[in-house]
Design goal:
alpha+beta; 6 strands; 23% helix; 54% strand
Length: 115
């Protein structure tokens, strides 16, 4: 009886937390597109009084007639990025919600594709 209660409590806590929400959102992202590397965005990590520079790659991917720019929070110690193209998983009902290599992407802009 108590084991079932602990399991149910753990499931509720996991699914209501940020990690659980991110995992559930990632499982809903069924759309797939190829992302093309554009540039790196410089960020800073703060450790008390010590500040460390790091770089996040910015990719672009196309869904329908819209091209999205997305930043992946990789926090690379150098500005060299190995992958020139990546697989982007996105939510079909809202392509701005996307994941790159299991990490949530941050949309930096979108443009209509010129035909």
């Amino acid at each position: 009886m108590y084991i079932l209660l602990y399991v149910c409590t753990a499931i509720i806590m996991f699914s209501s937390g940020k990690a659980g929400c991110t995992l559930l959102m990632q499982m809903r992202c069924k759309g797939c597109a190829t992302g093309r590397y554009l540039y790196t965005e410089k960020r800073y990590r703060v450790f008390g009084r010590y500040v460390e520079p790091c770089w996040n790659p910015v990719y672009e991917y196309c869904v329908g007639q819209v091209v999205y720019k997305v930043e992946a929070e990789v926090m690379s110690p150098t500005d060299r990025i190995e992958d020139s193209s990546v697989e982007v998983k996105y939510l079909p009902s809202d392509p701005e919600i996307c994941f790159i290599n299991g990490l949530r992407g941050r949309i930096r802009g979108r443009n209509s594709k010129i035909v």
